[in-house]
Amino acid sequence: MALTNDEVLAGLAELITDETGISADEVALEKSFTDDLDIDSISMMTIVVNAEEKFGVTIPDDEVKNLKTVGDAVTFITSHQA
Amino acid sequence: MTEITLKQSTGPAYTRLYAYGAARGENAVPNDDIVGPINSSDEWIRQRTGIITRARANAETNAIDLATEAAREAVERSGVAPEDIDAVIIATISNPKQTPSVSAIVADRIGANPAAAYDVNAACAGFAYAVAQADALIRAGAAHYAVVIGAEKLSDIVDPTDRSISFLLADGAGAAVVGPSDFPGIGPTVWGSDGSKAELVGMNATLTEFRDGKAPWPTLRQEGPSVFRWAVWEMVKVARRALEAAGITPADLAAFVPHQANLRIVDEFAKQLKLPDTVVVGHDIETTGNTSAASIPLATHRLLEEHPELSGGLALQIGFGAGLVFGAQVVVLP
């Protein structure tokens, strides 16, 4: 069954914490990966690959550039779940 | 008409690496010397790449000089007489003169004239490609002893204002002597290419575009995040195939020596491979930088200097880079 936005957000926050040490509380939909969370491009790619595995979605490299905020990623994942 | 049977050559059943040699650019260039044009900081570079200093050569030193120095050390340590070396294979992408080859000149300089000599263009996988070829040539009887070298002067093809790859790049050469063996010393090579991703890393213009004033001096560029993703998660599969082809498991390894592209790649790669703590991971990028084809033999040379007890152990080496190309094999450390 497809996950809700809140469930994807919680799962994504876990992945972000694992990779960067950022507290899950700080991960909110409106936060920018680069400007607010200070996540660099390599950490971003690690989070993307782990998100693919966790949520069973494919996130192409070209699409990663469009994922500016946590909300962008949550929307992409929920709309592409099998 | 009499039937004539052609002779075909055959060689020894096994090969191994006899010894390594190394040469690095003369200058340890700190991050502070290069951060100005990329509006960056020492901390930014260390965090993203692990590099503290990179080895860059003097203006008058070229890849041929570096290759010669590394090859001389490897040959001397190997105990093989230079005149017995009948193949010299150099992996390089940065020599600014396309012909004659770097390898013919180096073969002559190290006393191996008239060895067969040719250059290999397989970027950061070049050393693994060259080892694969030396192993095959010797077992086929086409050569008896080979010197394989990765040699680069990448500082000639960097743009100081480029934030994608230039600040990683460095100059150096690493060499190894390959010869016949009583035991299997070089495992099967798992190698390949994916030209559909040729645009991810490589030169940003051609020499003819430069000549015609349509482009500045060509320099290296990469799509860093995409290369990172490929270099770790796709290359882990290649590394596992190389272990399987050699008939071993990660626990059998003494060392893992990936191409020194970026410390984050090296660390994430080792993590994804789930190597036991007993496996020593080759680290040379921190004070050498990314030397493309030279990075694996340079890292192995350092590993053996710092951990002589690894001699005789198994090392998995894997190179990956512009092409895209990749090559991996398990070797017995000399």
How many helical elements of chain A?
A: 4
Based on Cα principal axes, name the global outline of chain A.
Answer: globular
Percent in strands of chain A: under 5%
CATH architecture of the largest domain in chain B: 3-Layer(aba) Sandwich
In oligomeric terms, what are we looking at?
Answer: heterodimer
The average pLDDT of chain B is 96
CATH class value of the largest domain in chain B:
Alpha Beta
Modified residues (O-(pantetheine 4'-phosphoryl)serine) (chain A): 41
Protein name (chain A): Acyl carrier protein
Main location (chain A): cytoplasm
Organism (chain A): Microbacterium horticulturae
In short:
The complex is a heterodimer of chains A (82) and B (334). Chain A is mostly helical.
List the helices and strands and how they pair.
The complex is a heterodimer of chains A (82) and B (334).
Chain A: H1 5-20, H2 41-55, H3 61-64, H4 70-80
Helix pairs in contact in A: 1-2, 1-4
Chain B: E1 14-24, E2 27-30, H1 42-49, E3 53-56, H2 63-78, E4 87-91, H3 102-109, E5 116-120, H4 126-139, E6 146-153, E7 171-181, E8 190-193, E9 201-203, H5 207-211, E10 220-222, H6 224-246, E11 255-258, H7 263-273, E12 280-281, H8 285-288, H9 295-306, E13 314-321, E14 325-332
Parallel strand pairs in B: 4-5, 4-6, 11-12, 11-13
Antiparallel strand pairs in B: 1-7, 2-3, 6-7, 8-14, 9-10, 13-14
Protein name (chain A): Acyl carrier protein
Keywords (chain A): Cytoplasm, Fatty acid biosynthesis, Fatty acid metabolism, Lipid biosynthesis, Lipid metabolism, Phosphopantetheine, Phosphoprotein
Family (chain A): Belongs to the acyl carrier protein (ACP) family.
